[in-house]
Recover the amino acids of this structure.
C-alpha cells in the first residue's frame, strides 16, 4: 500500500478542541481502512497569508502531519470529507516516497555569470 | 676510393666486433655494481600514484541535503526578500537537480499554506546570504 502524508492546518483553538478534531480525523482514516503510522505536531503558527474558510478570515493555525498507509481509492473521498469539516482550514494529502539515494548528487557547478562582466 | 672502401670495411669489421663484446661488458658491469640483483626495468618505470594535483569535485551548496517543503527557513533563503520570487539558477548557483527540487518545494509550500507568496517571512530576513550572486 502506498504511503501518504496528510498535512493539516487547523483553526486556532483550545487544546481539548484541537484534540477532538485530530481524534475524529484519525477515526475517519480508520473507518476508511487506512493504517495510521504516526501523528506529528508542527506547532501553532501565524499563517503565511490570511485564509478565508468556512465564513471566517484566519490568521493563526495549528499545523499537523499524519503519516498513513492506505489504498489510493480513499484519498479523494477523504479530502472531500475534510473540506467539509469546519475546523480544518487546509487539508493536503501528499504521496510520501522514501528517498532513493542518488549516486551522484551534483555534477560540476554551472557557470554562474552568463551575463557579460567588464573586467 | 681504395682508402674509402678500406675505411668502410674497417668500420664494418669494427662495428661487428664491437657489438657483441659491448653487450657482454654492459651486462658484466651491471651485475658487478648493483648490490641487489633487481631486474633492470623497475628503475625507469614510473611509480603509480594518485594524482597529487587532483581538485575536489565541485558541488553545489545543497549537495547531500534533503530539501523538504516543511523546511521553510531553508526555502526562504532562495527567494527575494522584497517580492518573494524564487531566484533563478544563475543567482542561487545550485545544480540542476537541486534547483528543481527547491523550486518545486517552494511552490508546494506556498499552496499548502506553509510559505508566503509575495513576501519573505520577517523572521528569516536576517538569515545569511547563501546564494552567490544576489545583488
Amino acid at each position: 500500500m502506498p504511503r501518504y502524508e496528510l498535512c493539516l492546518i487547523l483553526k486556532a483553538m483550545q487544546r481539548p478542541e484541537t484534540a477532538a478534531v485530530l481524534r475524529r480525523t484519525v477515526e475517519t482514516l480508520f473507518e476508511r481502512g487506512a493504517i495510521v503510522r504516526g501523528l506529528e505536531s508542527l506547532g501553532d503558527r501565524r499563517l503565511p497569508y490570511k485564509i478565508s474558510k468556512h465564513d471566517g478570515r484566519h490568521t493563526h493555525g495549528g499545523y499537523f502531519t499524519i503519516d498513513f498507509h492506505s489504498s489510493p481509492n480513499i484519498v479523494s473521498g477523504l479530502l472531500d470529507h475534510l473540506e467539509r469539516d469546519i475546523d480544518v482550514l487546509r487539508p493536503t494529502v501528499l504521496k510520501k516516497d522514501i528517498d532513493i539515494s542518488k549516486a551522484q548528487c551534483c555534477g560540476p557547478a554551472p557557470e554562474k555569470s552568463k551575463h557579460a562582466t567588464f573586467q | 676510393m681504395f682508402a674509402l672502401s678500406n675505411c668502410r670495411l674497417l668500420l664494418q669489421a669494427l662495428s661487428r666486433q664491437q657489438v657483441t663484446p659491448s653487450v657482454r661488458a654492459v651486462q658484466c658491469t651491471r651485475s658487478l655494481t648493483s648490490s641487489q640483483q633487481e631486474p633492470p626495468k623497475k628503475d625507469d618505470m614510473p611509480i603509480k600514484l594518485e594524482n597529487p594535483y587532483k581538485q575536489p569535485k565541485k558541488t553545489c551548496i545543497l549537495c547531500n541535503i534533503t530539501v523538504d517543503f516543511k523546511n521553510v527557513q531553508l526555502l526562504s533563503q532562495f527567494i527575494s526578500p522584497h517580492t518573494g520570487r524564487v531566484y533563478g539558477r544563475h543567482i542561487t548557483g545550485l545544480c540542476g537537480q537541486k534547483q528543481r527540487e527547491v523550486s518545486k518545494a517552494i511552490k508546494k509550500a506556498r499552496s499548502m499554506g506553509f510559505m508566503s507568496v509575495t513576501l519573505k517571512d520577517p523572521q528569516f530576513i536576517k538569515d545569511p546570504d547563501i546564494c552567490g550572486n544576489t545583488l
